[in-house]
Specification:
single chain; 225 residues; mainly alpha; Arc Repressor Mutant, subunit A; Four Helix Bundle (Hemerythrin (Met), subunit A); 2 domains; 3-stranded antiparallel β-sheet; 10 helices
Length: 225
């Protein structure tokens, strides 16, 4: 897919992060497809910035596995590597489980309410077949304990590897995730009840239910029929 032609205004005070997030999101949502070459000049023109922050963003994206950069040659969006996705998924699962364990009993009523609201929006989006809205609601739900724990190292790990998992999930998302609504509700109830061990276990299972490759996805589909 060609680079979008609409120029975007970037907040200069947060230039590096803004450029990184915009390119990252375009990769995750499929605007830039696996295998597509990314030219820093075209990206810079699209974003309305110089090439320097674009090159820095591509280096960060290479570190997270979303692009493959060959020094002195081209940079391309990485293909889906099942092993890399599984590795990232395991790390993401562990980080979210840690956040839940550390915040059980510490979440406010407002925190729990936000999680419930997010799960309702998640369910509504699934029914409507709105993949983007479903994943946004899912991010918001799981983000509540992450924000509450206030562990910057944990947030950094999720920021680095989360998009790799999310892209794989988005590319294979079928809307057949009704079971996730019940798992989310179970997690919320366990957090509200102060059951740290139970909440941690459910969180780990939620993230490990994500298919890392076509084989995983097929097995899960057969198991839920």
């Amino acid at each position: 897919m060609p680079v979008p032609q609409n120029a975007l205004t970037v907040d200069r005070s947060l230039l590096r992060d803004d450029v990184y997030r915009r390119v990252r999101d375009a990769i995750v949502d499929g605007t830039f497809e696996p295998g597509e070459q990314l030219k820093d000049g075209e990206l810079a023109e699209w974003l309305g910035v110089s090439r320097t922050p674009v090159r820095e963003a591509l280096l960060r994206l290479a570190a997270s596995g979303l692009v493959v950069a060959v020094p002195g040659r081209s940079t391309a969006v990485s293909t889906i590597d099942p092993e890399a996705v599984r590795d990232a998924r395991d790390v993401i699962a562990a980080m979210h489980a840690l956040a839940v364990r550390e915040t059980t009993g510490r979440l406010s009523d407002d925190d729990v309410t936000r999680m419930r609201d997010a799960n309702r929006r998640f369910a509504t989006a699934l029914t409507a077949g709105d993949v983007a809205a479903a994943l946004d609601a899912d991010d918001e739900l799981h983000g509540v304990p992450v924000t509450a724990v206030g562990n910057r190292a944990l947030e950094t790990v999720l920021e680095q590897f989360g998009p790799l998992v999310r892209r794989a999930e988005l590319l294979r998302f079928t809307g057949d995730a009704r079971e996730s609504v019940q798992r989310h509700e179970q997690l919320i109830e366990l957090l509200a009840a102060g059951d740290s061990q139970g909440a941690e276990s459910v969180t780990f299972d939620i993230w490990h239910s994500l298919p890392a490759d076509e084989a995983d996805g097929t097995a899960q589909a057969q198991g839920t029929e």
